[in-house]
Amino acid sequence: MTSDSTPRVPMNRTILWFGLILSVSLALALAGCGKVDAKQDVGGTAPPPAQVVPDMDSNNFQVDHPEQFPIVTATSHVAAPELPVTGVIQPDASRQVPVISTATGRIIDIKARVGDDVKQGQVLFQVKSTDIAGAFSDYRKAVKNEELMKRQLDRTNILLKDGAVPTSALEVAQFNEDSAVVDLQTTKSHLEELGSDPEHPTDIVDMHAPVSGVITDQQIANGAAVQSYSPVNASPATPFSTGYPFTISDMSHVWIICDVYENKLAQVHMNEFADVRLNAYPDRVFKGRIGNIGQILDPNLHTAKVRLEVENPGIMRLGMFVTATFRGDTMETRALVPSSAIVHIHDLDWVYMPIQDNRFKRVQVTSGEILPNNMQEVISGIKPGDKVVSNALVMQSTVEQ
Predict the structure, then answer these.
(1) Which pLDDT value is given to residue 23?
(2) Of 10, 55, 203, 268, which residue has the fewest beta carbons closer than 10 angstroms?
(3) 233 in the same domain as 370
């Protein structure tokens, strides 16, 4: 009875409320869709900003306005084939002079360093040597001996005039005097070669530069021991320096050592000239004469060492990298385009060529020499008659955007 007395909500009223809630939700959803559609309609009136559409091939592009990129036709240019190789600047071995210590001893002061420009006669280092004491002792003995032999010769001449001695005694005295003079000159020269003044001997000897140039090698340090000759045949256990104290190179002429592959050696000939460009100064071209073609190939790379002899204008430094270009005997036809038609990307050269339907393709080329009027050779990649974009940098900028 209690459950029967509980008031109930009529079924039709519940259905009515449910229908009302569903209608309101549907209206709100439709209103939101309308706003989205409205925004989409407004945005659809402006075209997308992109001007380049890439193709399946990453080097192909479609351009909206191809008239913005003028086209030129590659012309022909006849030139000898080129062989570019890399090389390194080295000193001319025929213009290198070793600095030899004239005295054995220990180095107490070094007045020059590797890489310094030095003049002939300039003091390079000082050696404290015991050789001076022995050489000066021999010199003083020779002086006294020559004085004695001179007095004996004078005495013999007097006795010979009085008939007290035979002529043979005079001959012996003259021979002894001559021998004493030779010994005196020899010991004096020895002191001078050691770098000491016979009249003012000292155990500290200055070592001078024999020629002017650049110090390209240094094998000594303060306190090191040196000896008075190059220890070429010295044993490994010797306490002396293992090389010349200094090596001075005349840098007015240098060598460029290049590596040329075996299959390209036919393009290289003795006494011919090659164009040389320094990586540090790529706009300057120098001439190098081929002075030697190595007779032994590198067993791993199969390259031969080719030596170029070049006059140094003062900007070439040892160890610099260069590019040398050898030219062949036969002539060949190459494409010629404006230098602006070639763009350098990631150490490679490229041009842009038009294809159908407003499309362009990027083509890798091997560029050659720049000629007058800003024209540049193309050794490979395109041929005379091909069409390319005249300003590849503008095209590249558009592609990157």
Answers:
(1) 56
(2) 10
(3) no
pLDDT reported for residue 40: 42
The torsion angles phi and psi of 158, rounded to 5 degrees, stand at -65, -45
Host domain of residue 263: 84-92+250-327
The SS3 of residue 135 is helix
Closest C-alpha to 129, from 237, 239, 228, 229: 228
Mean pLDDT, rounded, for 320-342: 89
Q: What is the pLDDT of residues 143-178, one digit of tens each?
A: 999 999 999 999 998 888 888 888 888 899 999 999
Assess whether 114 and 237 both reside in one domain. yes
Contacts of 29 (CB under 8 A, 6+ apart): none
Asked whether the beta carbons of 292 and 308 are under 8 A apart, the reply is no
pLDDT tens sequence across 89-148 = 999 999 999 998 888 889 999 999 999 999 999 999 998 888 887 888 889 899 999 999
Residue 362 lies in a domain: yes
Rounded CA-CA distance 202/195 in Å is 9
Report the 10 Å Cβ neighbour count for 59: 14
Look at residue 249 in the predicted model and tell me its pLDDT. 95
CB 247 within 8 A of CB 97: yes
Q: How would DSSP label each residue in 158-182?
A: HHHHTTSS-HHHHHHHHHHHHHHHH
Please state the domain count of the chain. Answer: 3
50 occurs within a structural domain: no
Q: Do both 223 and 279 map to the same domain?
A: no
Question: Sign of the C-alpha dihedral, residues 328, 331, 333, 339?
Answer: positive
> Strand, coil or helix: what is 134?
helix
H helix count then E strand count, the chain: 5, 24
Instruction: Measure CA 56 to chain center.
Output: 42
**356 lies in some domain:** yes
Q: Which of 201, 216, 55 is nearest to 134 (CA)?
A: 201
**Residue ending a domain, choose from 303, 327, 351:** 327
282-319 pLDDT, tens per residue? Answer: 889 999 999 999 999 999 999 999 999 999 999 999 99
